[in-house]
């Protein structure tokens, strides 16, 4: 890809994700301290909140405003029709009406894909979640931006599984260090570089590309030293199958259960070495749940494939069509080959 191609788009996307994160932080603080009907259920019974729709609307509106609505198409996760029916008045309706979201069925070239709040379960539980924005050109993810508002630069935070907000408030952290808050990761395909920035603080403007640091995957290739992260919910990924794989390749550490694409961020930042997801047979992975994370890991030096070792196919619509069994992301080829080999060795006896 030519050197500066998409540099303007990347800058805008990063700024927009910073804003979206600021919005999510406000909503999450409200959710954690209050009860009420802020959380609704989607058709598949997974939760959706005002943050999902507001981020979707804000991102779509900002991108159309900057690039012109003819030049930008956004396919976003949430079905705005659902909320129009459910909440025909007030703020939510206003949010929906301002969104210029192209829903499923849009043309597939040069499209921005948005997961406004990935890991909504983590979000409503006061834990990890991500805002994910990716640009796909001719079936290739060319830009990826991942906002991780609860993932500060210190790796230890990943370990406070399920208790992020409780731990934060118990410690009553009032640090002025920007790196103590969350982060935004981003990468452009072919640059060989991936970056992290601290989340902008309340009243500060983002001086592009202030504070950005290069990130790289971990150099650990000994399974005994490697850390695996996987989805929290057993319904989303088969924990006993991944435990068997982990055992057979010689992983020793307890796996980290982390909500959302923060798992991709952890691999790209070098805080963990392996991410695996084996959804139930019949579940079709959606591209916005992976696109941004894949390009960021790859540009940071890692490998992401399906369980057969093939690259994920972003060219066939909103689903990762043809995905072989599951997703495996690793910091390097040595670990990756071992895991893919272990899948081949154990699949037939796994009853999956
Ligand atoms: N049944 C099933 N199997 C596999 N995956 C599913 C399933 N249902 C939903 N999803 C998608 O998984 C996204 C959440 O993935 P996570 O890795 O965050 O899972 S977990 O909450 O940590 O268990 C989640 O993303 P969000 O809806 O953005 O939260 C879904 O797109
Ligand atoms: Mg998602």
From TrEMBL:
It is an enzyme of class 3 (hydrolase). Keywords: Hydrolase, Magnesium, Metal-binding. The keyword Metal-binding applies. Its EC number is 3.1.3.7. Its cofactor is Mg(2+). One of its GO terms (molecular function) is metal ion binding. The keyword RNA-binding does not apply. Mg(2+) binds at residues 77, 115, 118, 289. InterPro entries: DPNP, Inositol_monoP_superfamily, Inositol_monophosphatase-like, Inositol_monophosphatase_CS. GO terms for biological process: inositol phosphate metabolic process; phosphatidylinositol phosphate biosynthetic process; sulfate assimilation. Gene3D superfamilies: 3.40.190.80, Fructose-1,6-Bisphosphatase, subunit A, domain 1. It catalyses: 3'-phosphoadenylyl sulfate + H2O = adenosine 5'-phosphosulfate + phosphate; adenosine 3',5'-bisphosphate + H2O = AMP + phosphate. Belongs to the inositol monophosphatase superfamily. NCBIfam families: bisphos_HAL2. Converts adenosine 3'-phosphate 5'-phosphosulfate (PAPS) to adenosine 5'-phosphosulfate (APS) and 3'(2')-phosphoadenosine 5'-phosphate (PAP) to AMP. This is 3'(2'),5'-bisphosphate nucleotidase.
